């Protein structure tokens, strides 16, 4: 599993222009060495789901490790004729030196949690905003959608088939990577197999059938070529009258005598529930009970759920545009907000952004994020956001309270408290332990299993608790009061 | 305007795996040299609009020019252990040799038209399907959405601000390029300026304001740094009580004495219609009638239309996630279908894909695409799809007819017939004339102006005529009949 993306365009300049105008302004105003804290968090789960899946951290790491301004970048910035020459020289010698904490890929995440925190000189911490958000927003969006679709399939295989409708090459490649984290078992995107080891799958398009003189001839040619993995597309002309009978004929004539079993048939149009049930019977009667039926064509979690409820005989699903763009909600709304500034003595001054819209008020301070698991059931009880130096002692009872309705309190006992984030950069150096994509995917499945079923419903899920520690709540409340009066 | 993307990962392997299994099968079945015709077309306009905007041809050209299998690709394919060794050697020496015709970027396009046609050996013409669709689908989607938003703004500037919510780096960079073609005047995406010359714009985020001791201090620092292009973000605390008064104070204290005029203020939250009207009055009273007001925050064509209808005093719009992902409909459903095969004598055998769903029946044959313009008004009357060797003689009356309801006929006179597509590859060599992005953008605006207003409505637009020539209709009808009986 080699990564050939090292050759890729340096993406340092994939940044909003205002990050540079601000950086230049911080520099000339003497803030070059001011240490700040930024948090990434999101406000709601796409599709009104109960949780999202964190993804994209590996690509964020690659971006941060490769941050460097090329000669062309420097020329470009100088040509803008609005930046201070000393600032440009600073960029020429730019060396990323921030600390970064992140929730590991594959973890279920919830609104308002600081899923990433960056600590470092304001010029740097500000500059990386655009790519940090782009990377995590994109992959978390797709991993979250994939996880919904995979759950709808109830253990059946889901393959990512959407490259041709992806929003750009990275949309296809990294989207397929994220879909794998979320639980897909493979992709049609060959380059994602080559670079990330996500198994590439696929057999034939309708054009294969059309090119031959007949469907039967096309099937025969395919079966001869790929006897050990022969999946035939049966809907070019007529699934039940032509496709399935021809497939059975070819299985019998080309595979069985050579000691092979058919891999499957694929249905890509029509009423798949009806067709798959009829096709199943035909295959079974012909002695091909082991021949799988694959469905594709504008699928998503809702259609798959309904098809299975109506008894569709489908063993695997190929899901395209609705997965690779998360078309029902194609935006993961992560934001990146200033939460603190260090003074000359190194004291952290908490920063808050006030808004008339209560949901848009940020949580100040350098923070930590904990997940409490019930020791008996293993289920996740709640997440707690604390000050960075607080420790949740799970040998003692802990009182949770709703930060919006503080009279709602609940004491938990017999739980395990886990720090949810890991430090991935220290003084600009990556210290994250490398993780295999299969390991991330497995971790994701296990973590989703720790959620109560109520949280995993597609519609109207139970809202998982994300609470603040008393100390953090006190600081936030004090800052709000100070701003209001 | 240099393009540094040459360094980018070779995207040859960004292809659906089945393109390779089919290619191998064509090869081993003796179809390596079979010449085929494929068309790209789409079935409906996103957002139920009246037309789409073609975009992405330049990136398709770059992809086709760089088609080559690296040593690593070949190793990967060999490791799959299902491909014929002669086929792998063929790929090692792969040289693209197809002819390609495409509608130029910036052109309004309509459903069922062959916007791209590829002629060449089936292995090649099939192989490029995924990237051809991905590239054109993505950029046409965004150019189409941008054009809607720009029209809603009625001449006011629209800037693309969505990088952080884009689906991957290319989603941001090429999305910004496509948005420019569709009519945006600039982008926040710096790298898109460096590489494509799309003017990068942007001033400050809320974090800039938060970092200083006060909003006033933050504004002062910014005005001193950028006196000639000073746009201040006025909604961090309170637009009317704090933001605008502080901006006016700073304009007066920092800009006017030094001979500068303010560039603008930006409002990013709250009821922008109300706030902009109040802010306009305050700025005017202070003698800053020339100070522009920029609005941002979850905008799209509908919100902009409504804001302007309600008298919002906004001079420019920054549009983010709803543009860069086309969030109301994030998929452009272009497809790529076989339309003909040459026999040994070079005769073109037309191919059709039949479907119970009438809209999914393809149009066979090697075709050409014409647009008829009224000589008097300059307006586009209809598009006509003909056989490739038909000529529409615009010195004579021409009879249009509806291909679905053939009794609907109309004879047009005094028109100009223009072939809509240009040949961009001949025997695998690019022969497209290079076009400047500004030129494409201007061409787009002019071409949209040739559409009747009825066609450009956001909702329920008039359906523009896309007709078949009598000869083409006859072939299609004959093939349908042959398949049915």
UniProtKB/TrEMBL annotation, chains A, B:
One of its GO terms (cellular component) is cytosol. Residues 367-476 form the Nicotinate phosphoribosyltransferase C-terminal domain. InterPro entries: Aldolase_TIM (IPR013785), NAPRTase_C (IPR041619), NAPRTase_N (IPR040727), Nic_PRibTrfase-Fam (IPR007229), Nic_PRibTrfase_pncB (IPR006405), Nicotinate_pribotase-like_C (IPR036068). Signal peptide: none annotated. Pathway: Cofactor biosynthesis; NAD(+) biosynthesis; nicotinate D-ribonucleotide from nicotinate: step 1/1. It holds the Pfam family NAPRTase_N. GO terms for molecular function: nicotinamide phosphoribosyltransferase activity; nicotinate phosphoribosyltransferase activity. It is an enzyme of class 6 (ligase). Residues 13-137 form the Nicotinate phosphoribosyltransferase N-terminal domain. Keywords: Glycosyltransferase, Ligase, Phosphoprotein, Pyridine nucleotide biosynthesis, Transferase. It catalyses: 5-phospho-alpha-D-ribose 1-diphosphate + nicotinate + ATP + H2O = nicotinate beta-D-ribonucleotide + ADP + phosphate + diphosphate. One of its GO terms (biological process) is NAD+ biosynthetic process via the salvage pathway. Its EC number is 6.3.4.21. SUPFAM superfamilies: Nicotinate/Quinolinate PRTase C-terminal domain-like, Nicotinate/Quinolinate PRTase N-terminal domain-like. Transiently phosphorylated on a His residue during the reaction cycle. Phosphorylation strongly increases the affinity for substrates and increases the rate of nicotinate D-ribonucleotide production. Dephosphorylation regenerates the low-affinity form of the enzyme, leading to product release. Belongs to the NAPRTase family. PANTHER family: NICOTINATE PHOSPHORIBOSYLTRANSFERASE (PTHR11098:SF1). Catalyzes the first step in the biosynthesis of NAD from nicotinic acid, the ATP-dependent synthesis of beta-nicotinate D-ribonucleotide from nicotinate and 5-phospho-D-ribose 1-phosphate. NCBIfam families: NAPRTase_put (TIGR01513), PRK09243.1-2 (NF006695), PRK12484.1 (NF009131). This is Nicotinate phosphoribosyltransferase. It comes from Caproiciproducens galactitolivorans.
